[in-house]
Structure formats: structure tokens, C-alpha cells
Automatic annotation (TrEMBL):
This is Peptidase M16 N-terminal domain-containing protein. Residues 42-176 form the Peptidase M16 N-terminal domain. Coiled coil: none annotated. GO terms for cellular component: mitochondrion. InterPro entries: Metalloenz_LuxS/M16, MPP/UQCRC_Complex, Pept_M16_N. Pfam families: Peptidase_M16 (PF00675). One of its GO terms (molecular function) is metal ion binding.
Amino acid sequence: MLSRLSVRAQSSAAAAAPNTLASAFDLRSSRLTSGLSVSSVDLNQPIAHLAIAFRAGSRHQSATEAGFAHRLRNALGGDSRRSKGLTMLWQAGAIGANVHSTADRENIILSMSFPRSHASLGASLLSELAQPSLEAWELEDSLDTIKSDVAHLSTYERVSQLLHEAAYRNSPLAQSPFCGPHNTGSVDFRKIQDYAASRLVASECAVVGVNVDHGELQSFFSDRAFIQENKNRKEQASSTYHGHGESRREGCSSGVALAVAGEAPSLGGDAKKLAAAAVASSIAQEVLSSSSVFYQPYSDSGLLGFYLESAADGTTNGKIKQSIQQFKSLESKVDENAVKGAKAEAKIAVLSKADQGAELASSLASSVLSPSRDLHSPSDVAALIDTLSVNDVKEVARAAGARLSLGALGSIRHVPYLDEC
């Protein structure tokens, strides 16, 4: 759960209704002989949510596999080797299910929501949809959606990619979760199949059920699911944060958008540092009220920073300089009162998100696939946040402001260089 505390800190400040999850949260987890992780929690709600996550995001692509994670995500929902995709989607519709797929730098997640009385059928459909046959004609049919995705990327997504290129240079985390604008055509379907065969496997997979019986879920994926095993597991290539990098791209816009970030705790580190980074991001949001603060942890690194859009005029350079200087001096803003308020916001974020089954399932699945494979209940996370000291948060803020990276898009002549700030 800590891995998804906040993408943008302002969203974590929503008020929470009274929530019993802090005192009652039966989180169960087991590991099957195939290597697949199965976890579940029952919130006593009528709608069940299942998520199947694979370590198959863009960081796992080789130099010749750019865009494969995007192509694979868009192919989910097609035919499997045993069933027709259209038939499965009709069956999903018949039980009122909603199917959704996402992909980021770490994982590809396929999720489904449905009435909890249909848990067995839901698990059967989702496990089949998660093992597409990836035939040539199916990949050809998905090209239009890939082109549409690329054409409609938000400004934030484009700037975020520039930031990652600056922060991680040519290492795996610099690879985009999307196909490039000149990389949306047909590719050899056998190469996509090879990528899927190495990533959509049990040892790289986590299944999470919300409002689903754990024994039933474990039994199904032990006996009947067809997620393959892969005994020739490839080690994940590591990414190192470099810092002091800048990636700028001139655009036709009369405005400018930029993201500035420094190094932050990773998912593979101490859970207490993850909690401290979430608290630090809340404090940063108070300091940088005109910007959108984000904290994005990965398995071996992390980014804490801010995103800013502005009209391009004579005042833009000064505004950006001021924001960067405020972020660099974030450590000085961390005091007893600031930490106390930020802790409350972080706990509200954890407890309120825990009551949203679909988001909880995906979040837990990502956490299971993190290097530590630690699962924490909302009450555990809240207790962990309470144990943080001012120095814990200062340490994160100090590291984030020490070596900055910058990505900028638009009228970049109005964006100062980092060594000018």
C-alpha cells in the first residue's frame, strides 16, 4: 500500500468518512509452489475486485523491445489459447463485470470488478484474459488504440517521460510506458509473444482479491488457472538515479510545463522511509501550493518532486526559479507542526483509499511485486506513520533537494537551467 500512497499530494488531502478499516482488516497472503503470490482481504462489501499483476512494465524491455509493454497491455482482452476473447468479454458482461488494464514502468495489471457471488467465474475469466495468444491479426487490430493512446498523451505524461530520461539516462526506468510517436506500426508478433512468455508467468505474478474468499482464490489458482511457470527467470536490470540532468523539448505551445524531482526512497528499502517520503510530499505540497507535488517510488529508486504549468511571459523564469529554490530548501520547512499535519493527511490517504476495492486490489498487487513483498494493513501503515520523527522526514527532504533533475516541454527558453537556481 505504501507504494501507492500518493501520485500527486493534493489528492491525498481529501476528507475521510468514519472508517473501521483501521481496526479490522483481515489481510491474508500465500505463495503457491508455482511462484505465484495470492493475497486477499474481505471488506464485507457486495462487489468483489480481482487484480492480476505481472512484472512486465516498460523497465523490463530490452533495447530492441521499446513499446512492447504498451502493445501487450492493449492486447489484453483478446483470444487466449483456450477461449475466444469476444466470448469471455460477453461472459464478463453477463455478470455485470468491469474489466480494466493498466501499465506503468514496473507492472502490467489486469483487473475486474463483479458481484461477489460470481467469484469463481470472475477468477476463471480474468486468468484467461491475462494469458492472451497474441496472434498477428490481434496485434494488428490493436494498432489503432495504440496510436490513439500516443496521440492523446497528457502534457503531464509527456513531461514525466522527459524527467525520467533526465533522471535515469539510458537505464531501464528511462524507458517510456508508451510506444514512441514513430514506433506505433506493426512489429513481428513472435517478438511480442517472446516478451509475454518471459513476463506473463507465475513467478512474476501476483493475484489480489478484495471481497473474495482466500481459500477459494488460492484453490483456483493452484488447481485450475493456466498462468505458466518460467524456470528461466531473467534478473531485473537495475536503474540508478543520476541527478543534475535536464531534458528539454521545444513545443508549439505558448506556455511551458516542467517537472523537477530528486531522489526518494525506493520500494526495495525500509518501509519507514516510504512513509517518511509520503509525509514529506504533503509538506512539499503546502510549500509549493501553485504546483502539483508527486512521489513515485520504484523497486530500486524513487522520485519526489513537483509539476508546474505556466504561461510563457516575462515572469515565468522568475516563478520557476522560486519554485525550484523552495523545493531545494524543503528540509528547512520540516518542523514539528508541519510533520504533525502531514502525518494526519498521510493517514487519511491510506485509510480512505483502503475502502475503495478496485484501487486497493491494484495497489496491493503492486506491493506484493515489490522487492520486499511486504503487505501492510491500513492500521499497520497508520501506526508506522505515527512513529516517524522530524529527523526521518528531514532526511528524505534533504536527499530530494540535493541532486535535482528536470524535464520541460513547450516554450523552454523561459525555463531556467538548474545551475542557475
